[in-house]
């Protein structure tokens, strides 16, 4: 399900992007503005996808009898180097904006120095993503708002990896530990978050949805094997689509959305074959309708890290020839931001990917692949 997951990952990153720049569409497109208002649900989408991918990675680690530290090293390199590099980009962005303004106006206004906003200890906690443990509310992004609000999810994500790493250390008890944590996370939903706002346990249910889906597929429990009748398949797709759309309205209950998203992925997993055929197809227009979305999926982490800050750079350019009341003002700002994120992905994020993940990404954007 490689292609489908990359497509979903790209859409999740794009939805979060729209959420953070939704004021660009407030007057130009009420529909896009309303849709963007639910963009924070891209986060549980990421957690579900992560649960799926990490489960297969952990199982591979066990099967090949590798040290759990091999898993942890790959996960560390996946998160931290790109995160640290993005902090430098975010800190530099206000200076670049002022430099561009200077070239036009001849006046340079020194931007606020974000470095002094945090003490040495706070910077240490910030860069190690441990700042969430000092959160005083369930709104964890406030702990990172000074620099970039999206970083809070990285802190939770890496806690997921640490739990999986710990479970791998116990080898044959791996699945028992994951099951125990998943059960505990469901019980924790009924406990006050004040126990520890920044602890992974509050977000693990979304991750566990991906874990369950991964084990379904690992054990060959594919939807098309249970829904053999074409009419039944169509009804299932329509029903799960309706369930997913309904759960969006319940955006305050993210576990409902995460479960709906997981069920939706399971039901439409057979679409992987269609996507694979499109990549093999001689019809170039079909190929290039799909390929940009897959590329977006492969660079989704870079987009997620940077979009909320660097979009101001292309917006300065778009502002020169379009009025903000034009819907293309926001759409072109987003498009040019995505293009700006690609060099970061290619020269920084991609350099720290594991060998196996690089091979998977190469298949996604250059070759056809079938996984089942």
Mean pLDDT: 90
Which blocks of ≥5 consecutive residues have pLDDT under 50?
368-372
Radius of gyration: 21 Å
> Main beta sheet: strand number and arrangement?
none
What is the string of helix and strand elements? HHHHHHHHHHHHHHHHH
Share of residues in strands: under 5%
Could you give the distance between the termini?
7 Å
Number of helices: 17
**E-strand count:** 0
State the helicity in percent bands.
Answer: 55-70%
Shape: globular
Structural class by sheet pairing and helices: mainly alpha
Output the keywords:
372 residues; mainly alpha; 17 helices; 69% helix; globular; disordered C terminus
Can you walk me through this structure?
This protein is mainly α and 372 residues long. The protein is 69% helix and 0% strand. Mean pLDDT is 90; it is low at 368-372.
Quick overview:
This protein is mainly α and 372 residues long. Helix content is 69%, strand content 0%.
SSE arrangement:
Blueprint: H1 2-20, H2 30-36, H3 42-63, H4 68-105, H5 120-127, H6 152-169, H7 174-188, H8 204-218, H9 223-226, H10 230-249, H11 254-267, H12 271-280, H13 284-298, H14 300-310, H15 312-318, H16 327-347, H17 355-366
Helix pairs in contact: 1-2, 1-3, 1-13, 1-14, 3-6, 3-8, 3-11, 4-6, 4-14, 6-7, 8-11, 10-11, 12-13, 14-16, 15-16
């Amino acid at each position: 399900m490689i292609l489908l997951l990359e497509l979903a990952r790209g859409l999740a990153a794009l939805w979060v992007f729209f959420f953070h720049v939704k004021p660009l569409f407030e007057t130009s497109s009420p529909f896009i503005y309303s849709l963007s208002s639910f963009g924070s649900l891209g986060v549980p989408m990421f957690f579900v996808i992560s649960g799926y991918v990490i489960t297969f990675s952990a199982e591979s680690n066990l099967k090949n009898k590798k040290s759990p530290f091999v898993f942890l090293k790959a996960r560390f390199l996946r998160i931290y180097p790109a995160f640290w590099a993005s902090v430098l980009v975010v800190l530099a962005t206000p200076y670049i904006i002022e430099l561009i303004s200077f070239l036009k106006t001849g006046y340079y206004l020194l931007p606020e120095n974000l470095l002094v906003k945090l003490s040495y200890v706070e910077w240490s906690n910030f860069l190690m993503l441990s700042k969430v443990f000092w959160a005083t509310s369930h709104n964890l992004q406030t702990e990172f708002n000074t620099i970039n609000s999206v970083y809070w999810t990285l802190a939770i994500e890496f806690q997921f990896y640490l739990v999986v790493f710990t479970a791998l250390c116990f080898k044959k008890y791996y699945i028992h530990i994951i099951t125990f944590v998943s059960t505990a996370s469901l019980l924790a939903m009924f406990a006050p978050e004040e126990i520890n706002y920044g602890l992974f346990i509050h977000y693990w249910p979304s991750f566990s949805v991906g874990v369950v889906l991964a084990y379904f597929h690992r054990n060959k429990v594919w939807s098309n094997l249970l829904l053999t009748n074409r009419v039944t398949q169509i009804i299932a797709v329509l029903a799960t689509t309706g369930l997913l759309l309904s759960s969006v309205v319940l955006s305050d209950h993210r576990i409902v959305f995460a479960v709906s998203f997981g069920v939706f992925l399971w039901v439409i997993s057979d679409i992987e074959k269609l996507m694979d055929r499109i990549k093999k197809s001689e019809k170039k227009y079909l190929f290039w309708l799909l390929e940009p979305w897959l590329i977006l999926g492969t660079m989704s982490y870079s987009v997620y890290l940077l979009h909320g800050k660097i979009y101001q750079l292309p917006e300065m350019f778009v502002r020169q020839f379009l009025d903000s009341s034009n819907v293309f003002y926001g759409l072109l700002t987003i498009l040019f931001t995505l293009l700006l994120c690609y060099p970061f992905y290619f020269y920084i994020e991609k350099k720290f990917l594991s060998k196996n993940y690089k091979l998977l990404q190469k298949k996604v954007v250059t070759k056809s692949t079938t996984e089942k």
